[in-house]
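Page 47, continued from p. 46.
Same chain as before, 188 aa.
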Amino acid sequence: MAPTPLFAAAVCGVLAGFLRATIQGRRLKFPEFRLSWLVVLALLLMLAFNRIRLADPVASAALIFSQGLLLAFFYLNRRQSGLWLLGLGLALNLAAISLNGGFMPISPETLLALGLPPGSWVIGQRLGTTKDLVLPGAETNLWLISDWLISPAWLPMQGAFSIGDVLVAAGVFWVLWSAAGPEPNRQQ
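Result:
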């Protein structure tokens, strides 16, 4: 996922939750999640394969395993507000990755729209050390849930992301928005 939608969702979710809590005279109370370390481990795995040039089979296994860890976290915490949306997004991403050689497909047209010239990528190969595999739309399984959406040019960081990423970001926002606890602050 491009960092822009998830980062923006987290920042906006915290700000919106804080504003909501302030207006309603409540305090922010973030949910208590079970096995939060699964998320940390999954993010460390994703960071590793995005920074270190791992052999494609190892990188693919790390990506699928990290998605599996996130889905396990979702399942264990599925009753928390907004997590069902996040889980749906993760499931869509894992489906696209699993059905396309273990990487998230991205089309040459999307790369061109991002300003990456043809010499900087090769069809059928992984895009640098990213999670993306360059595939034409016609050769992509479940193209609609691949990385084809592009963040607006006016944002400081541009990148491609999927419908699953949008749902993950919406779920993150919802969880953080919901952090305006149900108990109002009372002066004693």
